[in-house]
Amino acid sequence: MPEVRNPGSLGDRVADDLRARIVRGELPDGSRLVEESLAEEYDVSRGPVRDAIRQLAAEQLVRLRRGKAYVRHVGPEEVAELYALRMAIEPLAMTLAAERGAATDWQEAERLVAEMIRAADAGSWGEYAEADLQFHDLFYRASGSDRLRAVWELYQPTFRVMIQLTTARDADLHPSARSHEVMLGDVRAGRLDDVLVHLEEHLRGSRDRMLGQVSVDN
C-alpha cells in the first residue's frame, strides 16, 4: 500500500493518498478511478475505496457520472476558486476568534508559531507545513461557529496538500514564520484591522505560489 500518514480509517488513508496524487497532477484529468483496481493497489477491500471516492467527490476532486468516478483536474481555475472561498471565510473565523478573546487558546497558537520557527531553522518543510495548517485551523476552532468550521474542514485536506507543495519549494521559510508571528501579535493585541490586512496578504501569497506550482506542473 502506498505510504499514507493518516491514522484514521482505511477509507481516510486511501483518500489521503489519492488526494495528494490528484492535487500534484499525478492522476490525469478525466482518468477513471476503478474500485477493483484501487482496492488491489492499496491492498484493501472495495469498501474503503468507495468511502475514499465518496469523500473526494464531496471535496470536488472527483466527478461521479453514472456510477463511475473520474479525476477532476486541479488547475489554475480550481486553485483560484479554493482560495477565493478561503479568503471569504478565514477573515470571519479570525474576527470571531478575536471577539471571543479569552476563550481562544493563544498559548496553542504561540506554540505553533514557535514550531514553525524551529522547522524553518531546520529546513524541515514537512513539519513547517503541518504547523502552518494547524495555526490557521486553530482560528476556525476558536471562532465558536460549528458551521464555519464544517466548511473549512471539508476543504482542509486539499489545502494541506497545497501547503505541503508550496512549502517544499520555499528556499527560506523564515519570512512565512514571521508573517504568522505578526498575525498572532495583531490579533492578541486587538488590532483586528491590521490582522485582516496581513491575513489577506498572506493568503494571496499562498494562492500565487500555488498558481505558480500548477503552471509548472501543467
Compute the CA-based radius of gyration: 18 Å
Summed up, the helix count is 9
Strand arrangement within the widest β-sheet reads: 1-3-2
In terms of DSSP E residues, the strand content is under 5%
Q: Could you tell me how far the N terminus lies from the C terminus, measured between alpha carbons in angstroms?
A: 27 Å
**Poorly predicted regions:** 1-7
Gross geometry = globular
N-to-C SSE series?
Answer: HEHHEEHHHHHH
Please give the largest β-sheet: 3 strands, antiparallel
**Number of beta strands:** 3
| Amount of helix | over 70%
Q: What structural category do the secondary elements indicate? A: mainly alpha
Mean pLDDT: 91
Question: What features would you highlight for this structure?
Answer:
218 residues; mainly alpha; disordered N terminus; single chain; three-stranded antiparallel beta sheet; 9 helices
Question: Any overview of this molecule?
Answer:
With 218 residues, the chain is mainly alpha-helical. 73% of the residues lie in helices and 5% in strands. The protein has 9 helices and 3 strands, in the order H-E-H-H-E-E-H-H-H-H-H-H. It has helices spanning 10-23, 35-42, 46-58, 76-100, 106-122, 125-142, 146-169, 174-188, 192-217, and strands at 32-33, 62-65, 68-71. The chain has a 3-stranded antiparallel beta sheet with strand order 1-3-2. The radius of gyration is 18 Å and the shape is globular.
How are the secondary structure elements laid out?
Layout (H helix, E strand, L loop, with lengths): L9 H14 L8 E2 L1 H8 L3 H13 L3 E4 L2 E4 L4 H25 L5 H17 L2 H18 L3 H24 L4 H15 L3 H26 L1
Antiparallel strand pairs: 1-3, 2-3
Helix pairs in contact: 1-3, 1-7, 2-3, 4-6, 4-7, 4-9, 5-6, 5-8, 6-7, 7-9, 8-9
